Amino acid sequence: MNETTKDAVLIREAARGAIDVALVLGSGLTAAIGEAFERTTIPYERLQSLAFSPLPGHRGEALVGTWYGKRVLALSGRAHLYQGFTAEQVTAGVRLAHAAGARTILLTNAAGALNPKYDAGDIMLVEDHINLTGTNPLLGNEETAFIDMLEAYSPRLRSAVRKHAKKRHRLREGIYVGLLGPSYETAAEARYLRGIGGDAVGMSTVLETIAARALGMDVLAFSLITNAAGAQTTHEEVTSIANESAPLLAELIEKTLPEL
Predict the structure, then answer these.
(1) Which residue positions in the chain have pLDDT lower than 50?
(2) Where are the domains of the chain?
(3) Residue 72: which H helix or E strand, with range?
(4) What is the pTM for the complete model shown?
(5) Which of 28, 44, 196, 244 would bridge 60 by S-S if both were Cys, CB 3.0 to 4.6 A apart?
(6) CATH fit for domain 3-259, picks 3.20.20.70, 3.30.1480.10, 3.50.50.60, 3.40.50.1580
């Protein structure tokens, strides 16, 4: 029994059954799990399959329980390429969620706006992505090397989100650009990324989406817009804005959850 399988058994036991939906919570977005989530907390130290190095806004905990009738695994904190982790390590949480039973995964991130119509606090439903990280979690895996990435973000699930969104959610829909990081974009880079079709930019999500699609999982993703890309900002400011706006994202997730 490998480490992922062992960890999946632990999570299933905590959930009292197979996981229905998995969530990955980005910087400052732990509040997006909502108060209705009755959960058990498992520190990442107990999950041997996960690589993790603490960052502000990333707790390093697996939250397992029931939310609106769904058995949910919420990963509070993720590994990033810019921390020195490999693409395989960055996507370990996706494989763990799948091994625990999840066939739907909801990814969240804090992102900078490339689209000039976006404002801090907007929620962008990810329609598609551009992977500029320079790597791929499927490298060296011949069995899953050539997966179809058209409609990587489930049209059915995106439609469900739109149905429940209200004006207060400030919902946008656009293209997420994934970069290596950890430095923020220069003004010239932001103009370039906008020019190739990006609406928001960040340092996560794209590799997780690729790994999830290789496993046959349905993917839904949200970017919480925290700043304008190419403008001066700090990680503390990004996390602060994410914390402030997370309750609206939590509300939108809760309304959509029964359909995931």
Answers:
(1) none
(2) 3-259
(3) strand 70-76
(4) 0.94
(5) 44
(6) 3.40.50.1580
- Helix/strand/coil for 117: coil
Longest pairwise C-alpha distance within the chain: 51
Closest CA to 173 of 222, 106, 245, 112: 222
Structure-token match 């329609």, residue found: 127
pLDDT tens-place string over residues 5-20: 999 999 999 999 999 9
Contact 165, 134 (CB under 8 A): no
Q: What's the pLDDT at 65? A: 92
Q: Which residues sit opposite 72 in a β-bridge?
A: 21, 65
- Structure token digits, residue 176: 């997420």
Task: State how far the Cα of 112 lies from the Cα of 122, in Å rounded to an integer.
Answer: 11
pLDDT in tens, 95-130: 999 999 999 999 999 899 999 999 999 999 999 999
Place of tokens 């003004």: 187
